[in-house]
Amino acid sequence: MKHTTCTVMSGRVVLASVFPLSRKNFFRLLSLLLLVAVLGGCAEKAPAPSASLDPPEALSENEKDEVVVDLPYPPADDGLPLTREEAIAFSYTSDFIAPLNAKEQQEEVLLYFKYFIHRGRDKMKMSLKRAEKYLPYVFNVFNEKGIPEDIAYLAIVESGFNPNAVSRAGAAGMWQFMPATGRHYGLERNWWKDERRDPFKATKAAAEYLSKLYEEFGDWYLALAAYNAGEGKIARALDGTGAEDFFDLVSKNHMLDEKARLRAETQKYVPQLIAVVKIVRHLELLGFEPLDFSNAHDVVPLSVQGGTNMVGLAKAAKMEWAEFSQLNPAYLRQITPPGRSSTIYVPQHLAAGARDFLQSPESRSLTGWRQYTIRKGDTLSRIANRTGVPTRVLCEINDINPRRLRIGASILVPGGMDKQEKGERASQPGKRNKRAVYTVAHGDTLYSIARKYGVSVDSLRQANSLKSKAVLQIGQVLHIPGIKPSRSQMRLAENIPSEKSRVSSARVKERPASVSRTRHTVRQGDTLWNIARRYDVKVADLQRWNKLSDKCVLRPGDTLTIVQQ
Question: What is the Cβ-side half-sphere exposure of residue 416, based on CA atoms within 13 angstroms?
Fold first, then answer.
């Protein structure tokens, strides 16, 4: 029998026709398409996950470092009508937020609006909590540049106000600068620090860039699109379409050749910000906590000389290293870059202790540095390999000619542990156990652990023989170099099994977790993908629990079993 099947594959439903496409069959196929769309399951395309507010792993209250972010495509419509309060918020306009005239414009913004107040609500709450620390500063900087205050909330779209956010494309920081653009606007990036992560300097750079784009395009929506895609891309698209504004450009995007077309993320960039602004301007009406600017960072910028010991500075200011690092996320080492001044931030009420330290000899002591004695056969590349410090950095610090190393001479090396020294220590009984240990928990990264203990990522990696792309496992035990263990950790370290035996033991002790079963009744518009998303399970598991093949049709009234641990 000739038929058409509806195949469900990871949230996408594909029609496969097995009869010839004659005129008669064409209309038959068209009727079937409309019928299946009404029944639900063939109309919805699975969106890419929301990135700024929906990272690969949920953010904890202790902001996750190095979270990967990407701009989301429109999330699926949850099918819920707007309440009276939500409709009021959605109708908001301002000098920046113009009325949405076309139906397409309203639909694009509405998808994000509903996502951020419904499924993405927890992520929005986290972004708003972070925003409290920085918004007063951002408002001041943007006001000085004449940038509409609403655009300050662009950092929610870009990074969720996380200074440590990075994207797969290489953008970093609260304002997601690419390396080249960051350098153009004065954000230094090298082995010592990455000023794209400095929320204060990066905010000034973002304001300068946005102002420049507005001067070029004369329209804030186009300026924002250029911030995302680059001014050259937008200028060429305007020339190729004759469009007069952003939404006109999006509607004429098909007129451009494939290379010149705006990417989907650029087309959705402005609608996403519009949705965020409508929400932020009505937080209490929508059931969110109002912004509390008493949590804003009240910091003082201090100019410090090159080679300043930041661990000692933090201690003198009566700050934990983790607290100091959160205020100074741009620094990748415990020492400021030698040979030039840098800016660090400390709380206003602790600035006096920090200033006193900077006037003392201890600020330029060798704390955090060590001396390396050049041996027979050494080359600068070999020393760099042993210490984990790039050759150019060794040359810069010591002002040496890499071709004229003298045996017996000493050079300064920042942090790290010599691989040969590490091997010698490991070969001596009991030496390995004289270091603190840390058990990896959910959400940990090498970067966050290194910051917690005030050590470098390189030394932490070397101390545990980890490769550069090693993935940490929950429960994995790491040795912390240069930190003395507590008595309890000493007892633990003496009995730490090998990684292989630890994993084997964990498998032996593993017990099935208790599970609960939920029955879900399929409603119009449901697909396997959005049902799986709703219950936080995988589509493949949903198919397995209900013995569904890839070829299926979900109909309103069907029931599915959801297994949750």
Answer: 20
Confidence of residue 38 (pLDDT cuts 50, 70, 90): very low
440 neighbors 473 (Cβ within 8 angstroms): yes
Looking at the structure, tell me whether residues 166 and 282 fall in a common domain: yes
Alpha carbon 218 to chain centroid distance?
Answer: 31
Give catalytic status of residue 158 as yes or no. yes
Asked, for residue 476, whether it belongs to a domain, the answer is: no
* C-alpha to C-alpha distance for 260 and 140, rounded to whole angstroms: 37
Q: Pick the residue with more confidence: 90 or 73?
A: 90
Of 63, 158, 195, 424, which residue is the catalytic one?
A: 158
Of the candidates 155, 173, 162, 145, the residue with the CA atom closest to the CA atom of residue 63: 162
The count of domains in the chain is 3
Domain boundary residue among 293, 313, 344? 293
Looking at residue 45, what DSSP letter applies? P
Residues 6 or more apart in contact with residue 386 via CB below 8 angstroms: 418, 419, 420
- For 52, other C-beta atoms within 10 Å of its C-beta total 27
What are the CA-CA distances from residue 559 to residues 42, 538, 539 (Å)? Answer: 18, 17, 15
Q: Report CA-CA distances (Å) from 545 to 511, 518, 539, 549, 561.
A: 20, 11, 10, 11, 7
30 in a structural domain: yes
Contact call for residues 238 and 250 (beta carbons, < 8 A): no
| Cα distance between residue 138 and residue 213, in whole Å | 18
Same-domain check for residues 17 and 140 = no
Residue with tokens 């995007």: 253
* pLDDT > 70? residue 504: no
Q: Which helix (H) or strand (E) holds 559?
A: strand 559-564
Residue 356 and residue 281 share a domain: no
Range of the domain at 116: 68-293
H runs (alpha helix) in 388-527? 391-398, 419-427, 446-453, 457-463, 487-494, 499-509
- Could you give the 3-state DSSP secondary structure of residue 287? coil
Give the model's confidence band at 354: pLDDT under 50 very low, under 70 low, under 90 confident, else very high.
Answer: very high
Domain end (from 312, 334, 360): 360
Is residue 368 pLDDT above 70, yes or no?
A: no
**286: in domain:** yes
Residue 434, Cα to own-chain centre: how many angstroms? 35
**pLDDT band, residue 50 (cuts 50/70/90):** very low
Q: Could you tell me the pTM of the whole model?
A: 0.61
- Phi/psi for 246 (5° steps) reads -60, -50
User: Would you say 39 and 556 are in contact if contact means Cβ atoms under 8 Å apart?
Assistant: yes
Round to whole Å and give the CA distance between 205 and 178: 12
Rounded Cα–Cα distance for residues 439 and 454 (Å): 16
Task: Tell me, yes or no, whether 126 and 166 share the same domain.
Answer: yes
pLDDT digits (tens, 9 = 90+) for 177-226: 999 999 999 999 988 899 999 999 999 999 999 999 999 999 999 999 99
Give the mean model confidence (pLDDT) for residues 50-67.
37
The pLDDT value recorded for residue 303 is 94
